[in-house]
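Hi Y.,

Following your request, here is the sequence exactly as I used it, all 226 residues.
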Amino acid sequence: MARRFTDANGLLNDLLDRFEAGATSPIAHPDYASFPSVVVADAFMKQIREAEGAGAVSLGWGRGANRDQVAHVRLASAGILYRYLGRTPASRIAEDAAARLVAGSALHDSLKNSASQIAEVWARGKTWHGFGSSDVDTLRHAFVLAQAILDNRHLDVDYKTFSRRTVGHSKTLERIEGAVVRLLSGILEFPPGARPREALRAIGLERFAAAAADRRQDRPRRGRPI
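Below is the corresponding structure, written out as tokens. Let me know if you'd prefer a different format.
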């Protein structure tokens, strides 16, 4: 379905959005039927022509009675359009965010690979399981928590205690438990079809302190050597 716009910035940014998503030469269309006034239409075309003059886009013209109308706007140079709009490429944002994601952390190789895959998703302007590049600080906590689990720092403790000891906030794990489990899914074996909370419980991480205490009491004690 053709994409039609009455806002020039919206049209130009849409071209870059689709370029970042993988389209090599996206196009969009003016929505002539929806312009509220001639003044608005003229302002729209003025900005589109400026972008064309800068070399950012090329214009396709109508035929017959509409030969004097712009039929579509095609991306000509993403680099020029980024500069024209003052917009930072998603790839650069993703690169910076990915560096922050793992900075200063000693991570399992699989977690490092996950960070690289997430950066690739962000570079396409997409989100990873609902986390965008602007959520890097929150997702960094998921990596730290996942690594702490791999280091067995989660055994027989409750969510709040583990979360507070690991990232300094008692409710963080509860908020991002799904992301933590996704990061660990290729490393640890969870029960098939288990929800995040069930998966974490299966590896020894209880949601409530009482349950964690019961688990510790149920653990067989080693006798003293004779």
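The CA atoms of residues 102 and 140 lie 7 Å apart.

Thanks again,
Q.
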